[in-house]
């Protein structure tokens, strides 16, 4: 049997009731009128019936319109409540929009509340996740970042910082080799437990390399480069170098924006900037670039966190460092590093400065 929707049934019922009442009214009216008046009114019977029929249709149509409007609003509200737990937008998911009545307004208010609630929950979850990641990174950093420098003949070495509990701080270290020293500077523009984990892994590689005796610095650089390639993580800034104390040969692989700095004659000069800002995990045959470090000259590495905390302008950062150190007569590598650290702190504050790492090597005499 054909079933009508309740809203059609209600409209049809209103039309039937209205027209029935009109017919009853006409019949009662005819009964109480006199014979003369009854005859006169019967001339307009069809007009009266047509008017009653039209009025009943109008009343039924208005009933259908308002019931349909309320039904759509209630349907939207029902979808809204169903989407509340599923965190869906009912307008996008079901194509339902609220009407212009009170229920439609209520539906839109609920939709706005749902959106705000979802956004707040996502924001809170993101903040909580970032906070947890930062805590894990800081704990991991505090466990492995404890640098112990060894005395190396004819070299004066300094690393800043020697320890850190900040997961954003770059890792820097210098270890002795059979012919001098090998150094590393590694870090990421983003901080997290994955990045801190790779820095911890690199520190483990450096510790193992330190236990290897009789190995030249250049060979250690190649070995470390090959080991680091086995765990590709995007965004790694890395500089590896070795220095031979006998002849001052300094070779390096550089994948960072801040160039190598050489301090001599009371001035800082910069080497050619690397073409690659991030470490290339794909390339196996890397060419080591070389220069000669003379006695009483300082080889300086500054991490890429310096241009980042100085609004990502490497030229301004280098110019400030040059101006700060120009004309100063440093006695050892420690003075160089501490003075550059004070330069950073004066510009960005101690908390931001703690993200940067500085490494300095001086040839004490020609061996």
TrEMBL record:
Transmembrane segment boundaries: 12-33, 45-67
Keyword tags: Membrane, Transmembrane, Transmembrane helix
InterPro entries tied to this protein: PPM-type-like_dom_sf (IPR036457), RK_trnsloc_Pase (IPR030912)
Highest taxon of source: Bacteria
Record-linked NCBIfam families: RK_trnsloc_Pase
Name of the protein in its database record: Arg-Lys translocation region protein phosphatase
Lineage summary: Bacteria, Pseudomonadati, Spirochaetota, Spirochaetia, Leptospirales
